[in-house]
Amino acid sequence: MGCCLAFDLTILTPHIPFLLKGAVLTAEACVLALAGSLCIGMIVAALVTSASPVLSRIAYVYVDIFRSIPFIVQLFFFFYGLPEIGIYVGAFTTGVIALSIAGGAFTSDVIRSGILSIDVGILEAAEVSGLSKPVIFRKIVMPIVLRTSVRPLGSVFINLILTSSILSTITLNELTGSAKIVASDTFRPFEIYVILLVAYASLTYLVSLGIGALHRYLNRDLMTAGVA
Amino acid sequence: MRYTAFTSYDIVLLAQGLGVSLALFLATTIIGLFIGSVWAVIRFYRVPVLTQLVTALAELLKNSPVLVQLFLVFFGLPAFAKFNVTPVEAAVITLSGNTAAFVFVIAVSAIESIGRDQIEAARVFGLSRWQILRRIIAPQAMAFAIGPLTGLLVNQLQVTSLISVIGVVDLTKMGNILNLRTLKPFIVWAIVGALYYVMAKLIAFAGAVLEKRLRAHTAWKGL
Q: Among B68, B62, B53, B63, which Cα is nearest to A202's?
């Protein structure tokens, strides 16, 4: 006895480099997936808010499906499905693709509500000035939306970080995957998962602090005017 | 001998998995709603120490992956405290705790959405703190919270799919079993996904109906 209720963290010290390697992989996947989901989100939001009913219907169906189906099911769909149609891309790429597609659905929702909250007068002024639709979208709509929706986009990103732990189920040894290996190597699952829990929580906390700062920086002119 | 074709028995398998997923979803929703509301009441009464503890716990549960929470309960607790946890027990503990954390946040903001003037008026009439909570705040907060709660439950249904990782034979696990046997990932995962989709739509529909009923008193009845 005596061993059972001991909470001993020193046993994990030799495994820290291995865990850090996993954390780096998590960071890489999250940053790539963030870029991917922003691209998809912008395109889909443009389609949802477009004047064409067919395009907006298709985009809506995409968002609806990928928001209503568990991520792990989507991940398995791609992980087992892509090789079936002859595409061999590996676990990391599959994970980033799946995260981008799922994240894109949530991102597009945030961007869509950002677009809808733009003052119509601005868009009418742009139209009257003779700007083409793509130009209005790129030069007028997106700068406003990306600036005002930093916070909701940030919470989508935080969700992305938490969701990335599911990538460990497709043999990808990111942070959670590496922790699983360390847990079975050391027979210390309690310590390692407590550390992991705290690590994820502090990571997402830091990210949310960063997002708050970014939001304040990007909207500094609105703040001084007392509007935001 | 290997049966790679789909059989009619597979429908039974999927139905079984669906039942397990739904049962765990319902059970953890009820437990989570209860615990989350209790936490919100603790905060409402501003119980010293407990309030801070509950707020910190909710933050920790909200900001960490459910998968890690599952591993902590399923692999960590038995190793640490020497009591055995079955996959289903671990799933119920984790998902209830996770739901409770989000319910707590929704309940707190719902309670805060009630104007201070109402509470002050009630206090002037001599209502006790419990009476205020029960008669003034709860009915209005319920109507306020039902929208976010529906969104939460649709999300929590998807979270239940994670318990397949620790060996609960739910819908996702059934999908995995069928996938490995038939080697037809597109069909299997599309069917599993469709079943989750239908369940999510049903939850959203039920939430909308309930919201309409709870908001009926504020709706304009016409001339």
A: B63
**Closest to B118 (Cα-Cα) out of B131, B104, B100:** B131
- Identify residues of B whose CB sits under 8 angstroms from chain A CBs: 59-60, 63-69, 71-72, 75-77, 79-82, 154, 157-162, 164-165, 172, 175-176, 179, 184-186, 189-190, 192-193, 196-197, 200-201
Rounded to whole angstroms, the Cα distance separating A96 from A31 reads 9
In Å, what is the CA distance from B161 to each residue of A45, A63, A129, B156, B172?
28, 19, 51, 9, 6
Q: Give me chain B's average pLDDT, please.
A: 91
- Residue B154 to residue A81, Cβ atoms within 8 A: no
Write out pLDDT tens, residues B116-165: 899 999 999 999 988 998 889 988 888 889 999 999 999 999 999 999 99
Cβ-Cβ contacts under 8 Å, A60 against chain B: none
For residue B193, how far is the Cα from the chain centroid?
A: 19
Which is the CATH superfamily of the domain at A24-224? MetI-like (1.10.3720.10)
- In this prediction, residues B192-215 reach a mean pLDDT of 93
Rounded mean pLDDT, A171-185: 91
Domain assignment present for B4: no
The CATH number covering residue B88 comes to 1.10.3720.10
Task: Kindly state whether residue B122 falls inside one of the protein's structural domains.
Answer: yes
Q: Is residue B3 part of a domain?
A: no
- Between chains, do B79 and A189 touch, taking CB under 8 Å as contact? yes
For chain B, say whether A101 makes contact (Cβ under 8 Å): no
Q: Is residue B2 part of a domain?
A: no
The tally of domains found in chain B comes to 1
Q: Residue B223 pLDDT more than 80?
A: no
Q: Tell me the ipTM for this assembly.
A: 0.88
